[in-house]
Automatic annotation (TrEMBL):
Protein name: Nitroreductase
Keywords per UniProt: Flavoprotein, FMN, NADP, Oxidoreductase
Domain of life of the source: Bacteria
Organism: Evansella vedderi
Flavoprotein among keywords: yes
Domain Nitroreductase per the UniProt entry, residue ranges: 30-183
SUPFAM superfamilies: FMN-dependent nitroreductase-like
Family statement: Belongs to the flavin oxidoreductase frp family.
Coiled coil stretches, renumbered: none
CDD domains (alphabetical): NfsA-like
Length: 257
């Protein structure tokens, strides 16, 4: 019998406390599932503008807006970006592929334009720009899902940063941080909301604690193993033989990355 597809984290984790005040926004956020298969169907009029406007409404540090979004719909360009991103075919299928970039070029341009010397070549500036880009991506993702679309962030876009830079003609100071494939999902691609690490492992009150780390990791590992999450996705380490007696769950997978 096929495993029941659970579409909400509230249902998956039995978060009864949300029952009295859940709304559409919380429903969208707690129902996220990465979709990796899209129909050959274009976005309706207005959808692209709704996603972009939502993305541009994200918080930004000091109002620097140190990001840029490249919207890719050209088939040949999507094909190349898919190849650079681990040859993931869903990028080719998606009618739109967004590339969210940390953009320091524009800050340098403005500084020179105003007659000053740019002194922001620092790790802090790169982190700031990366956070701005990541926040815009998250807003775009939520907007797309609120419109009934499927979407999946693509971190493997960073596999070939120089090739991506050349294909998108990114100037020096602009780095392609993450992609986002968006479209109407194919039937049968959903597997259900994926379990997350237990709240007692990732959420700390007042101060950091490892009190529940080991038992939380053990419980989570068993969840992921029972779901067969990593079947066909195991990471091999050159020169490292298979280890007898070690179940391949989240801990083993994560340690091998």
């Amino acid at each position: 019998m096929d495993r029941e597809i659970i579409r909400s984290r509230v249902e998956l984790e039995g978060v009864d406390s949300l029952a009295d005040f859940s709304n559409k926004t919380i429903g969208v956020l707690t129902s996220h599932e990465s979709i990796r298969g899209f129909q050959a169907k274009e976005l309706p009029d207005g959808y692209l503008d709704a996603i972009i406007t939502s993305a541009r409404s994200a918080p930004t540090s000091s109002n620097l807006q140190a990001y840029s979004i490249v919207v890719v719909s050209d088939k040949e360009r999507k094909f190349k970006l898919a190849t650079y991103s681990g040859n993931q075919n869903f990028i080719r299928e998606a009618p739109v592929f967004f590339v969210f970039c940390a953009d320091i070029y524009r800050l340098k341009y403005v500084t020179k334009r105003q007659g000053f010397l740019f002194e922001g070549d620092s790790l802090e500036m790169f982190l700031l720009a990366s956070m701005d880009a990541a926040l815009t991506m998250q807003n775009a993702l939520v907007a797309a899902e609120a419109l009934g679309l499927g979407a999946v962030p693509v971190g493997s876009l960073r596999n070939e940063p120089i090739k991506v830079m050349e294909k998108l003609k990114l100037p020096r100071g602009v780095f392609a941080l993450v992609g986002l494939a968006v479209g109407f999902e194919k039937e049968g691609v959903r597997r259900g909301v994926k379990p997350r690490l237990p709240q007692k492992v990732t959420v700390h009150h007042e101060e950091y604690s490892i009190k529940h780390l080991e038992d939380g990791l053990t419980d989570y590992d068993q969840q992921m193993i029972s779901r067969r999450t990593y079947d066909g996705r195991r990471v091999s380490i050159a020169g490292e033989p298979e280890r007898d007696g070690v179940e391949y769950g989240w801990c083993e997978h994560t340690a091998r990355l």
